[in-house]
Design brief:
The protein has 353 residues and is an alpha/beta fold. The chain is 40% helix and 15% strand. The chain is built from 13 helices and 11 strands. It has a 5-stranded parallel sheet with strand order 2-3-6-1-7, sandwiched between helices. Strands 8-9-10-11 form a 4-stranded mixed sheet. Helix 11 crosses helix 12 and helix 11 packs parallel to helix 13. It is globular.
Length: 353
């Protein structure tokens, strides 16, 4: 779309893209800025019109926001974070699996079904395509990716041309994660770049890397970032509770406790989601089921800490720690109350994963 034909709202949205992405993605400023610049170039007409909107290789350990940024991009570009197809490349390690991506040729089993990649894009041309753990794919699969990145199109098993020019391509990899994991807390991820790039160059052919718009390294999440992720996760719980006329409040100690329990240097923010499910959502679900049919179901639920353990409305929901368990140091974080009316721009709305 030519810049002069864009609606005023879309131009403003593109100029503030980083702010939108930061509402979901925490602690990965370089990646947020880089993808925002690339999207603006494409929307301003400076990108090759015969290639996808953008193509990125996200590098880094698990649980640091690679998939979350991909979902945030889908929501930003297509107003729906489910406008995304995820393809697990560990399922394409064998030569014959190429046909699963683009469809089997005539006369072969599965000819009528089409390919996982080509069918998804043919049915929904405007979406984000996530190739997860791309380093595990067979070399023949990379030949397919090269054609998509270079020409913006692909011919499926039935001879139909599938247009990829309105898609955003994201590839993720854990290559070089060891170098990132060995960094001290708050140490700049750039110090690990030489080791990460060496692993990348060893795994991928130069012609493949040269067709990507950018290679972005995601750093480890520290304890401080966990505070903002707790805010985001509790805000999402509140949004679901609002449908029942309920709100969830969490004092500073409760937020700090959730951040402490949900942080793992090896797995990033992934344990936090499970922590909130088991210690917040499960007790709330039991409370709601107990109160079905009662009058005045609405109200505010309060998360706090009682005798060092997490509690909901004063009832402890956190089990005793197992023998030998040693919690990480408490993060030096200040938390604010998360209420039903938390502002989209307030402390409870920082968006990240």
């Amino acid at each position: 779309i030519p810049v002069d034909k864009m609606l005023e709202g879309e131009r403003e949205k593109l100029l503030t893209m980083e702010t939108n992405l930061r509402r979901r993605v925490v602690g990965q400023e370089e990646a947020v800025v880089a993808v925002s610049n690339a999207i603006r170039r494409a929307r301003a007409g400076l990108q090759d019109p015969n290639r996808p909107i953008g193509s990125f290789l996200f590098l880094g350990p698990t649980g640091v926001g690679k998939t979350e940024l991909t979902k945030a991009l889908a929501e930003f570009l297509f107003d729906d974070d489910s406008a995304m197809v995820r393809i697990d490349m560990s399922e394409y390690m064998e030569k014959h699996t190429v046909s699963r991506l683009i469809g089997a040729p005539p006369g072969y089993v599965g000819y009528d079904e089409g390919g996982a990649l080509t069918e998804a894009v043919r049915r929904r041309p405007y979406q984000v395509i996530l190739f997860d753990e791309v380093e595990k794919a067979h070399p023949d699969v990379f030949n397919v990716l090269l054609q998509v990145l270079d020409d913006g199109r692909l011919t499926d098993g039935q001879g139909r041309t599938v247009d990829f020019r309105n898609t955003l391509i994201v590839l993720t990899s854990n290559l070089g994660s060891e170098a990132i994991a060995n960094l001290a807390d708050h140490e700049d991820v750039e110090k690990a770049r030489p080791a990460v790039m060496e692993a990348v160059r060893h795994a991928f052919r130069p012609e493949f890397l040269n067709r990507l718009d950018d290679l972005l390294i995601f750093g480890r999440l520290g304890r401080e970032e966990m505070a903002r992720i707790v805010d985001i996760q509790l805000k999402r719980v509140n949004e679901r509770l609002a449908e029942r006329g309920l709100a969830l409040g969490a004092d500073e100690a409760a937020r700090q406790r959730l951040a402490e329990l949900g942080w793992d240097p090896a797995f990033g923010a992934r344990p936090l989601k499970r922590t909130i499910q088991s210690l917040v959502e499960d007790p709330i679900a039991e409370r709601l089921l107990d109160r079905v049919g009662e009058e005045g179901e609405g109200g505010v639920l309060a998360l706090s800490v009682v005798d060092g353990r997490l509690a909901l409305d004063g009832v402890v929901v956190e089990d005793e720690r197992p023998q030998g368990f040693k919690a990480p140091e408490r993060p030096p974080i200040g938390f604010a109350l998360v209420g039903a009316g938390a502002s989209a721009n307030g402390p409870g709305s920082a968006a990240v994963h």
